[in-house]
């Protein structure tokens, strides 16, 4: 099992480019099942979750060709439906939460979809009701084998309809869109997620021949078409990496330039870091963070403690709350971090408390952080990465701590960040990847 040994206290300097967006990649790759023609995808991040999905598509019968380091072509002429009931298919899907988005395209094009209960981060209950309620609205029949933990949907003639989603689920919205593009008639989706990644999916599908309107809003209208064709698509840079690097630069009092960030697609993220007192400058499509020894958290207008909470887009993505929390430990002032969507995502704060951070875990969803203002340095410790985002937050903490920290279970980090140790070491970090015997 691999671990990181992190020597803290080293400032970063230089420039770094974010990888392609993981969350967009999972949607886009699943959408390649909607056509028998070739789909080329560029800026594909070379991370564990994405590579596992590519190998899963190949095992399902999709022709996959690697064109360059970050470009692939996909052609789903046929799908091996016998394979979908095998133990190998079950094992692959169980490792990957994004595998649930295979159902929508399979249902739309082939009239049937199978998937075992998907895996992914252990960050609390992540229900799939939105997906399957949407499929049923389109006319599909749903069955879940409780003993076998296997989902099946069947619908040979999907028909468009009106639906009001019970939550603005990103993966649920993506799955329903992919099912609806080949349904007969019009589908209206209200309370749809409208993240940039959903917008990218819709625009790609329209280039393939779909008829989707209302893109970038929470009210989508889809006119079903007979078939879709091939296309080319380039993924956005990963906004979670961009936010992670902004927080990392501030926490380590470093000067850093983040290149090619697609600034117009970052939404509220830059403004929220500004409210943390972090200075930065937009230079074209780059973000430059100057070296700053102190950053002060704003208060609300009445002087009360700032609250940073996640919310559906254009609100703050929940994937960055772990970063905001760890960055707040060395800010001047206090902040309440409110994680509304997942009840287990704050449980990594005990390690930060062990390192000397002043944090009160109010309940599974809220934590109050009182910043040290760099008067006290965090202490090195031994810790375990519980999920992708908390793992990177702990890595940021270790980079700023006094002494050498060890982070176990870094496979979780590798699922979302490619070669993060090599990329950060090139900027001046001291991170060593070791194999640890149990």
TrEMBL record:
InterPro entries: Enolpyruvate_Tfrase_dom (IPR001986), Enolpyruvate_Tfrase_sf (IPR036968), MurA_subfamily (IPR050068), RNA3'P_cycl/enolpyr_Trfase_a/b (IPR013792), UDP_GlcNAc_COvinyl_MurA (IPR005750). GO terms for cellular component: cytoplasm. It holds the Pfam family EPSP_synthase. It catalyses: phosphoenolpyruvate + UDP-N-acetyl-alpha-D-glucosamine = UDP-N-acetyl-3-O-(1-carboxyvinyl)-alpha-D-glucosamine + phosphate. Keywords: Cell cycle, Cell division, Cell shape, Cell wall biogenesis/degradation, Cytoplasm, Peptidoglycan synthesis, Transferase. It is found in: Cytoplasm. Coiled coil: none annotated. It is an enzyme of class 2 (transferase). It comes from the Bacteria. This is UDP-N-acetylglucosamine 1-carboxyvinyltransferase. It comes from Alistipes dispar. The gene is murA.
